[in-house]
Structures are given as structure tokens and as C-alpha cells.
Request: fold
Amino acid sequence: SNLISHASQYPEKWRVHSIDFAQTADRSEYLKKTVELLQELVNEVNSRVQEMNREGITRYDKIPSGQSVLVLIDSFAKSGGLKLADPSDSSQTGLRDNELRKTGIQLLECLTKIGRAAGVFVVIGSYSVTGVPLGLLCLFPSQIATRMTAKESVFVTGQQVAAKLPTSPGRAWYHRSGTG
Reply:
């Protein structure tokens, strides 16, 4: 991704947050901290938008707080991540975590809707699309898909193109909104 490349070349211009649901033992606590981070970022976006409106600025990099923010989320649909858990899990932890996940998805939707205009960019990686809300997926201007099932391919690409990719390494389908 150009964002990741730019952030690594110009680290002074970027603040990077990495969220990886596969790398944690205490999933409930990690989920709570992730939702807190997403809330802080939504608050920051709202503050930046207000500042831009107040100053009559249309580009986030023209305001004093114009440092870009990159949020990298890996293993998004992994159990314990932002994927909704089994609704039949009525344990206290399961119910609490599901509420946190719903809040997290709402915050993530907010970040992807207005974050780019304020210099906050989100990149999500997932080994599966199971549990990824379609409304969230549609908010991303670019999608990359590796070989997957026909059903998952239709969900991500709108067609079975990713299901027909060769199994050799390095093969992927890429789509950027507006490019067909």
C-alpha cells in the first residue's frame, strides 16, 4: 500500500497504530483497549474537522495538527477481534465483548467515512471475510483479495474472480473504487 510505504519513508509525518487480534492472549482486554483507541481516534478526527472548518481549510496537512495517522488492523475477522461472536454465547463475557465489538465496528465505520478527509487512514487485513460487515467493507476505496472461496469472492469483489485466481504465491485481485 502507498500509505504504508509513505509512512515508513517519512516516519516524522505519520503516527502509526497497529492492532493485531492474533497476537494477544487476553482477547477481552485487548478488545476493550482497541475500542478505547478507536474512540480516541474518532474524537481526534472530529476535532480536526472542526479545526479545518473553523480555519476554512480543506486539506488536513495544512493545519498545525496535520500529522497523518495510519491505523493497521490485522486479523480483523479472527475470533476475539471485531467480528461479531456467536450470538448464542450468552455468557457475561460474551455479551460484554459483543457490545464492545458493535461499538468498535461503529467507530471503525466512522473513521473510514470521515477519517481520510482529516488525515486518518485505516488498513484492514483479514484471512477471512466471515463476520466482516458488508457496510464496512464498502467504505474502503481499495480491496485486495487473494484466492478464496466463490462465496467469499462474490462478497469481496462482487464476482467470482478471486475464486479463479491461480494457487501460486503472489497472485491477487486488486480493485480501487472508480477504476472498474
About this structure: The two ends are 19 Å apart (CA to CA). The helical segments are 2-9, 27-55, 92-114, 134-137, 150-157.
